[in-house]
Amino acid sequence: MEIKDFIDNFASNFDETDTDSFTPETKFRDLDEWTSMLALATMAMVSEEYDVELTAEEMRNAQTIEDLFNTTKSHL
Questions:
Q1: pLDDT tens-digit profile of 13-44?
Q2: Which of 57, 65, 64, 49 is nearest to 7 (CA)?
């Protein structure tokens, strides 16, 4: 599991945000397009791509894309 692939998968849920905006340090909640629906889509993506079920608490605790990556990776 590589962070670049994780970022690409994460970014695929966004329609309007420039892909250059996504880095490990990106604070995804600060993105204009971020909504609770994208939080659910992110949880679904992690489940589908990595067979990991993130909890709502894990989503709330994550601040950056790297946080989400590390949390996902810790379940593998």
A1: 999 999 999 999 999 999 999 999 999 999 99
A2: 65
- pLDDT at position 31 is 96
Phi/psi-derived region of residue 51, left when phi > 0, alpha when psi is between -120 and 50, beta in every other case? left
Instruction: State the Cα–Cα distance between residues 74 and 22, nearest whole angstrom.
Output: 21
- Name the residue range of residue 28's domain: 3-15+22-74
Residues sharing a CB contact under 8 Å with residue 3, sequence separation 6 or more, in sequence order: 24, 66, 69
CATH number of the domain bearing residue 55: 1.10.1200.10
